[in-house]
Specification:
Structural class: alpha/beta
Distance between the termini: 15 Å
Number of domains: 1
Mean pLDDT: 95
Oligomer: single chain
Number of helices: 12
Bound molecules: flavin-adenine dinucleotide
Helix content: 40-55%
Strand content: 5-15%
CATH class: Alpha Beta
Number of strands: 9
Order of helices and strands: HEHEHEHEHEHEHEEHHHEHH
Strand order of the largest sheet: 7-6-5-4-3-2-1-9-8
């Protein structure tokens, strides 16, 4: 973990672009709650194939204007260089300085792969077109990407994104801190020393968590799964237990030198804020945990 300790810690919250007016109102309230703790940035997801293009732009620019730096996610699957270039122009003109660059997942049966096949090609394209305008974040998978040919190939593919010009990475969520520590160890042996910020999924709803985790290849350890199962419909116990488990893992990660945390908020403030509060992350402690 030595390589990670040199980086300034950064804390961020991720949203998805709301579909309805009610969703927009809700996000505004969530944004206001989370802005109070002064995160380094917000980020907004992007539906693969451009399905949320306009909503992502609207949400990003709306949040950015309100004073907290906001990073759009941008995925290349199903897209053309021209369409991605247009998006980059919009962001560049609006003073956006950070992009989360991804391949994305095309829903099955929906169109061709697109002109850029993998995230390393997207990073290369953004660098060619816009130089150093954007700080580029890429995705990292401490438990390995579900489609990777094998773990070694996945690490090499991660290295390709760094070689193409990624500045830093955010991980897929995990509930086993050792997978993150091992991943960083492997990167260090490959002389890769960019910040790799753990992505944190607060636990609020067991059914949704299982569904997401099955899709993205994140493992829910048996002891957590069994305990959550046992709580059944008792959402208060699930919340309390989830908060404790996630707080403990974050403490372990930060104490070992993780360069910050990125919360997958699912457009809800309270679960992320509860962990934040338990960690005592006021401005002072953000630096010296
Ligand atoms: P890549 O890095 O391209 O990797 C994809 C797979 O291909 C891996 O198995 C890798 O090993 C393999 N691979 C990579 N390069 C090569 C190569 N050159 N040759 C052969 N194989 C290769 N999805 C969305 O749709 N919208 C979002 O907003 C979004 N946000 C995310 C944010 C974070 C922080 C994370 C961790 C994930 C996010 N995702 C999002 C999910 C992500 O798009 C999927 O996990 C997707 O399957 C892979 O994207 P990637 O950028 O990691 O792809």
């Amino acid at each position: 973990m030595e390589s990670q300790k040199q980086f300034k810690r950064r804390f961020s919250f991720e949203f998805f672009p709301p579909k309805t007016d009610k969703g927009k109102e809700k996000l505004q309230k969530v944004r206001d709650r989370l802005a109070e703790v002064n995160p380094d940035f917000f980020s907004v997801t992007f539906g693969a194939g451009g399905s949320t293009r306009d909503r992502t732009i609207e949400t990003v620019l709306g949040l950015h204007k309100q004073g907290i730096s906001t990073a759009p996610h941008l995925s290349c699957v199903g897209g053309t260089r021209e369409a991605i270039g247009e998006l980059l122009d919009v962001y560049q003109k609006s003073g956006i300085n950070r992009i989360v660059a991804l391949r994305g997942d095309m829903p099955s049966g929906m169109g061709a792969a697109g002109e850029l096949r993998y995230a390393n090609e997207l990073v290369e394209f953004i660098r060619e077109r816009t130089g150093d305008t954007f700080n580029l974040e890429v995705a990292a998978y401490p438990e390995f990407h579900p489609q990777a040919r094998n773990a070694e190939e996945d690490l090499k593919n991660f290295a390709r994104k760094v070689q193409a010009g990624a500045n830093s990475a955010i991980t897929q969520y995990f509930f086993n801190a050792d997978s993150y520590f091992y991943f960083i160890d492997r990167l260090e042996k490959m002389n890769i020393t960019i910040p790799v910020v753990p992505g944190i999924m607060p636990i609020v709803n067991f059914t949704n968590l299982v569904r997401f985790s099955d899709m993205c290849g994140a493992e829910i350890p048996r002891w957590i799964r069994k305990q959550l199962e046992a709580y059944g419909d008792d959402s208060e116990s699930i919340r309390k237990f989830g908060e404790e488990v996630v707080t403990r893992m974050c403490e372990k990660l930060l104490s070992a030198g993780a360069p910050g945390l990125h919360f997958y908020t699912l457009n809800q403030a309270e679960a992320s804020l509860a962990v934040w509060k338990n960690l005592g992350l006021d401005d002072q402690k953000k630096i010296a945990f």
